[in-house]
Design a protein that fits this description.
Shape: globular
Largest sheet: 5 strands, mixed
Structural class: alpha+beta
CATH architecture: 2-Layer Sandwich
CATH topology: D-amino Acid Aminotransferase, Chain A, domain 1
Radius of gyration: 15 Å
CATH superfamily: DNA ligase/mRNA capping enzyme
Number of domains: 1
Number of strands: 7
Number of helices: 4
Order of helices and strands: EEEHEHEEHEH
């Protein structure tokens, strides 16, 4: 599937250095949103709709997810992601975890607890094209079979 892991952070400029838990991150210094890749490349202007959807992210909060671009047929497309802006592709940021919530590191919490924190404290503040990715409560064999279908 054509997607890129993103890490989003909102906080003060002195807290702009993320821990390397996921591929990429976003930094907010209370004035400007910055979307940065895992190699610290600035993508702030590349995905303006995603930035708008995250505008109300609580201060000093880090969330994790995937940016997915879709081709004209509505299928995930890595090529559409790589060429985003020069093609009619749409993108969605699928959120699935929270690492820091309002300045509090929650990475030591169980995943179920982090998901609950995400659902209660972060998701209500986000807008399209940011969406929640619920857990896949299915046996691995069933998941693999559905991917092959």
């Amino acid at each position: 599937m054509g997607n890129r892991t993103e890490r989003w952070r909102r906080g003060s400029a002195d807290r702009a250095i993320p821990r390397s838990i996921s591929s990429s991150h976003r930094v907010q210094d209370r004035r400007t949103l910055h979307l940065r890749s895992r190699n610290n490349k600035d993508f702030s202007t590349s995905y303006p709709a995603v930035i708008e959807g995250l505008a109300r992210l609580p201060d000093e909060t880090v969330i994790d997810g995937e940016i997915v671009a879709f081709d004209e047929g509505g299928r995930p497309s890595f090529n559409a992601l790589q060429n985003f802006g020069s093609s009619p592709a749409s993108v969605v940021f699928y959120v699935f975890d929270v690492m820091t919530l309002a300045g509090r590191d929650v990475m030591c919490e169980p995943l179920d607890t982090r998901r609950r924190l995400l659902e209660q404290n972060v998701l209500p503040k986000l807008q399209e094209p940011v969406r929640y990715t619920p857990p896949l409560d299915v046996r691995l064999s069933v998941l693999i079979q559905s991917v092959k279908a």
